[in-house]
# Entry
Amino acid sequence: MRLVSKLTLALFAVTCVLLAVDAWLRVEAELQFFRDDRALDHRRIGHALAHAAVGVRKSDGPAAAHKFIREANGREEELTITWLCDADSTEPLPPPVAACSELERLAPLSELTKIARDAHGTRRHFTFLPVVDGDARFGVIAVSEPTTDEERYAASVLRSSARSAVLTVVAFALVSFLLGVVLVGRPTGRLMQKARAVGRGEFDPPIRLRQRTRDELGALADEMNTMAAQLRDANERLTAESSARVDAIEQLRHADRLTTVGQLASGIAHELGTPLNVVELRASMIAAGDTDGPASREAARAIVDASDQMTRIIRQLMAFARRRTLERAAVDVSEVAGQVREMVAPLAAARGVSVVVRAPGVATADADGLELQQALTNLVMNAVQASPDGGEVEVDVAVVAQSASPPATSDATEWVRVRVRDDGQGIAPEHLAKVFDPFFTTKDVGQGTGLGLSIAYGIVQDHGGWTTVHSAPGEGTVFEIFVPTRPST
Ligand SMILES: Nc1ncnc2c1ncn2[C@@H]1O[C@H](COP(=O)(O)OP(=O)(O)OP(=O)(O)O)[C@@H](O)[C@H]1O
Ligand SMILES: [Mg+2]
# Structure
């Protein structure tokens, strides 16, 4: 329920209770006043009649006095006067007159008013008066009247109280609702909008509440503006820092790629040797005029093939070395492994090491192909460098179903796993925990920067995956990377 509705309802309930209590007290007071007034009338009439009855009793006896009262009774419609009890009557008393001693045993009857039901069950207002002459007491008369008037009066007072109470409550509820909407509802609505906007990262413009008074909501709006400004500054700092960090990482990766290209260069230069020889030989044959028409065409074709081969090698190397922006796509990791093998093979061959790729089929990952190629190249280069002459580096690509391991951030359940295994010297246990640290290297100065593995680790982590290493001295080394598969669309 909204705050304004709650406040209105609470005020409504409190007002209702207060007005009900007030109406009840007013009705009570009015009724008391009504009863007192009526009792006064009863006493006036009763005393006059009692006085007259005493005179009759003295002159004509109790029976005549009782008769006098009965006759006086008949003159009034609503008002009833009854000789209730007689003090010293020696003659039999006509009902309902009884001996006072008997009645007063039950309740003192002189100068008393009360509301009770009569023999017919009608509620009446009774006033009891002693019939006295000096010190002599002759009995008690009761003056009574039905309470119908009183009830009618009470009902009319109640009605008018209820009418004014309802009007007051409605007016009060309306005013409190309108005030609630203007003073609380609208400002809190705007504060909520502002909070949502800040949550979405929209820090401007600052919120300005319409009322200029310095109340709590105004203070809250000021605090929110300050908070939004601080968040905006922090956000800008964070964006700048993270873009600087991304730039730094990209520069580092680029530098690492150039280093790799440098390391691969000698092998590639060797690789280019064969097609260059072909070009040179065939071109010299054509130039010397040693070839006739068909032979010239054959030589030209050989030159074209050799040039294609060289172009492919150089293009691959240039693509590997160039700067680029990251792009995730469906990448066949088996193909990437093949490209890596092709790039590293000349260097490996120069060291007497063979690189074998085992990829049973297409293994599609959600990845940046060139980044993945860089990570894999670093692993394969390390394996080649660690392998003995005549060794074999095995690159195994597979799709595996398993849950993620730390520090993976993807919640994928299916992964492309690339396992790079060599039968080299292995890694010493004390080095194993450090191999992924930037600048950790066991190679001689100028031989390695110590960045290769940390960059491979970072690239795999950027893809939401993870990297593992298993190695023991003399038993070779196995590196594994896991990147999420890409569901086929
Ligand atoms: N396959 C492996 N066999 C044995 N040791 C390895 C292997 N791969 C990595 N290492 C060890 O981990 C260290 C760190 O490797 P990393 O690739 O990060 O740097 P590097 O190879 O020394 O230098 P760079 O990669 O810049 O040429 C290596 O110096 C080496 O001691
Ligand atoms: Mg390395």
Remarks:
- The chain is about 60% helix and 15% strand.
- Residues 259, 378, 382-383, 386, 422, 424, 427, 431, 435, 440-443, 448-454, 477 surround adenosine-5'-triphosphate (ligand 1) (CB under 6 Å).
- The domain at 326-489 is CATH 3.30.565.10 (Heat Shock Protein 90).
- Residues 48 and 398 are 124 Å apart (CA to CA).
